[in-house]
Amino acid sequence: MTEYSIGVDLGGTNLRAAAVSREGKMLGKIAGRSELQAGRDAVLLDIVSAIKRLIEQNSDRKLVGVGMGVPGFIRFEEGIVVGSNNLPDFEDFPIRDELERLLGEKLILENDANAAALGEKWIGAGRDVDDLVMLTLGTGIGGGIISHGKILRGYLGMAGEIGHITVMADGNPCGCGNRGCLEKHASATAIVAMAKLLHLGDGITSEGVYKLAIEGNERALMIFTAVGEALGIALAGLVNIFNYPLYLLSGGPLPAWDLFAPHMMHEVQKRSYTFREAKTRIEKAALGNEAGLYGAAFLPFQAQEDAKH
Amino acid sequence: MTEYSIGVDLGGTNLRAAAVSREGKMLGKIAGRSELQAGRDAVLLDIVSAIKRLIEQNSDRKLVGVGMGVPGFIRFEEGIVVGSNNLPDFEDFPIRDELERLLGEKLILENDANAAALGEKWIGAGRDVDDLVMLTLGTGIGGGIISHGKILRGYLGMAGEIGHITVMADGNPCGCGNRGCLEKHASATAIVAMAKLLHLGDGITSEGVYKLAIEGNERALMIFTAVGEALGIALAGLVNIFNYPLYLLSGGPLPAWDLFAPHMMHEVQKRSYTFREAKTRIEKAALGNEAGLYGAAFLPFQAQEDAKH
Asked: Which of residues 222-241 of B touch A (CB under 8 A)?
């Protein structure tokens, strides 16, 4: 009987689940919205129902386990999520134990950005390396670090907060208390904020700024220069710290790669001796917004391997 | 027959070697100067002679191996040192193989700052944790990262270059090509440079600046404020990236801890949500300039353990 696992990605907006084979082939996927306004119990039942449907669809296969990526910090031992702005109802709630009880299956929790990095390592742009750092550019900037093939969690599951690295000591203020956080200078939200400062139009989105830039709008181009420089400062630091072979970028602003990446690479080249000396790849991630789903599905396979050793 | 190992610390100024028991007790130590001007062969013979004396002194014990810390990047597989400003004669030279041939013993090379971090983890301020980051403040700023009890090397032995993290995007220029590197704002050299900018006297040393500061000199105090802030920005980033339980500082400016640490801690507190949420210690290292010697001596014991698994 061939084995498979189930990955779940619970976000502030979307709830998705997928059955994935040991070889990384997606066997089935269920995508819907996270009905957070309906309350915690409703969301839990949606998760359980999606997983149960996938189990039914794969009744000829053996389920290894369920992995779930969620925004926030994961207290791995307790199986809880803390500090999640997107899932306030689940703060300090025993979500892992409750889902295991409802499902009768083992479930592994992980931070969503960490899961995405693991997914890329498993079957995405990082499948040929054991060590990588991934940045996901969105409303904020999430980070995941893979060390020796595994997620670097830190002692309370809070590692990889790359969006809050300081890139400008006196830069834009951040809700985390810092100033000049990477995500205040290079996220989709930062792109929109800079567009407002440059009077590029009320209600403009980061896609709108991108469109203006490819039409040659000088101010829109300046924004992507600034985004590239901020990313370059952060990446140069990460290259100096880790000397890993691969750094991946993912997320909404990725189509604008050709606009920001030259400035980013220029900064890294200038700011990191290590980058100049050690062949280091800075590339686009490959799995798009399914990276987290694959990474979550990989968690039970990895736990099974670990248990053997 | 009890076992011991030998640690060697080859710096630009000093050459030291010590025999250390498995329990971390120093059994004997030889300290001298690195006579680099006498040429590479003379230095190699000095190293061999020191090690052989220690072996003679411990003839009733069994030698597990020799570890050696050197400034520069270690190409672990090849056993060579590259990019070392302090040891230009050894650039790309097969130092490990040559010493093994002269000694008839196994030798493990490591970067000196990495060795110091490992020493602190073994029997110093980090002996109760498995993960830590250590900064050594000196002429430059060296860094060592211990992950799951082992040195995080990166794929070409270049990880841990914490002295070259950008703390000010447009800060002081650095020989590495970057601007605003931590070591250009917080090393002993940076302290002296700031003292010059503040006209605190020609030829003043970092110790001299410290003396002025404890006498209440306002400008000298400003320097330690700036040092603390730069360290705080870098440490906040490291805490956000690693979420490790312990960060250690070592080196010459450590006596000035009470002058710079309050500013450092203030910055970390302000800039790192992770620091505020997760109990994180930022402390003085315990072994002083012997940390690297102990760390180097621990390398053969660790390799022996690894070989068992």
From this structure: 233, 236-238, 240-241
- List pLDDT tens digits, range A209-226: 999 999 999 999 999 999
A165·B240 Cβ contact <8 A:
yes
CA distance B90 to B93: 5
Interface of A with B in 15-74 (CB under 8 A): 73
Residue B151, classed as helix, strand or coil, is strand
List, for residues A286-298, the tens digit of each pLDDT value.
999 999 999 999 9
- Does the interface predicted TM-score (ipTM) exceed 0.85? yes
Q: Domains in chain A, start-ordered, CATH in brackets?
A: 3-117+289-308 (3.30.420.40), 129-285 (3.30.420.40)
- Computed over every residue of chain A, the mean pLDDT equals 96
Q: Which of B114, B128, B240, B267 to mutate to test the interface with A (most CBs of A within 10 A)?
A: B240
Question: Helix or strand or coil: residue A167?
Answer: coil
Task: Return mean pLDDT, chain B.
Answer: 96
Three-state DSSP class for B84?
Answer: coil
Share of chain B above pLDDT 70, in %: 100
pLDDT, position A12: 86
CB contact under 8 A, A241 and B83: no
CA distances to A86, A136, A192, B15, B157 from A188, rounded to whole Å, are 17, 10, 6, 53, 35
The Cα B220–Cα B212 span in angstroms is 6
pLDDT at A182: 98
Distance from the Cα of A228 to chain B's closest Cα (Å) equals 13
